[in-house]
Amino acid sequence: MFAAEVDRLAELAAAASGADGAVELEIAIRTAMLSLGAELLQGLLAADAGHRGQVVDCGAGHDAQFVSYRDKKIDTVLGSITLPRAYYHCPACGCGVVPRDTELGIAGASLTPGLRAMMAHAGAALPFARATALVNQCAGLHLNARRLARSAEADGTRLAEINVAEAQAINRGRLTPLPPPAGDLPDKLYIEIDGTGVPMRPDQVTDRAGKGADGRARTREIKLACLFTQTRCDDDGRPVRDGDSSSYVATFDPAADFAPLVAAEARRRGADHIRQLIVIGDGAKWIWNLAGERFGEATQIVDLYHAREHLHDLADHLAFITPDPARWRADRLKELDDGDITAIIDAARAYPLIGVKATELDTKIGYFEANAHRMNYAHFRDLGMSIGSGAVEGACKSVIGARLKQSGMRWAVPGAHAIAELRCQDASGSWDAAYNKINNQTRAG
Ligand SMILES: [Zn+2]
Q1: Domain 177-303+388-411: which CATH class?
Q2: What is the pLDDT of residues 209-229, one digit of tens each?
Q3: What distance in Å separates the CA atoms of residue 126 and residue 429, rounded to the nearest whole number?
């Protein structure tokens, strides 16, 4: 069969001419190789049809009786194959049992784990229709977009569940992450936290107030943490993020469920061993609650650029009464850079306002009062610390926005959560590890 195929391809090669012919030829050879590979795979896998005696355990402790061999069509990275598998039936549960499917990781599925991972990787990177077209073209397959989307979302959901369980095990001390290799322990571990809105279908936001014309929200917030380490500063004394040291955690769940995920990731990243923990965020209260509860020993820093925005807002508010508004603003920005928050508060309190203006002023000053200890910027700089949340803000765009916030997209929470989970794993450089977890869990049944 192989020899005949080679002869046929050689004939094709002889007849091929020009660039068109060359393309046709290489695709023809790939098609032939894939079909040869599929045949080989089918032969190897079919050699054991999973007959494990007349009776097997159904999984719930009953005897399932062998009934017959049944064929199943399975899609693989080499194309479709058909496998005969021993089929058992449990009268007590009324369910079928196929030991071979469990062994191959295809119980209740018609895609091999290898193909699933490929589809999920493409679906995490690109909108499903384009991802499907790309996989089909590059891998010589014939998948449809609906199936790719379903499979990718199912894997992302399963991965999120696995990671929640793993986080629980780490936080309860039942699972201890390996300590980082001694000797080259980084000096600082950063946990930058932010949230960003993901556009939702109307039925996903019915219970939420928002900024839409009808008073409804258009988006749901996904919470994102970016963890990275820092070992050194550059020649100008600016902190340098360690290369390839960023990992990401994201969820649409409330802060109370986000916190254990972040805590577990921090421990996984060596929080118990690294000297200095630093949490950076904008002024959002939930971030500082999380930091206080989970990372009591960490230095908390309000992102300098958010603080500056608030200062501009304060300066605008007082511009009508300060003698030289531009000067006033510049002086306060300088104080902010120095971390002299008391001076800012005193300067803003120097003008007696009344009514609404006074109430608004209290709110604006309140931001600085509440966060003063998180704005000690000169001190933080002296310690070689980063004082901006650029890493997580960049991740809001690259990890979340680039895939989930494309024009015209409307998500349901579970699908968006699943794809965000896959993208976090990919961006963290732990794609293969994630798929090992999924496949191990599938095989464990
Ligand atoms: Zn049973």
Answers
A1: alpha beta
A2: 776 667 778 899 999 999 999
A3: 18
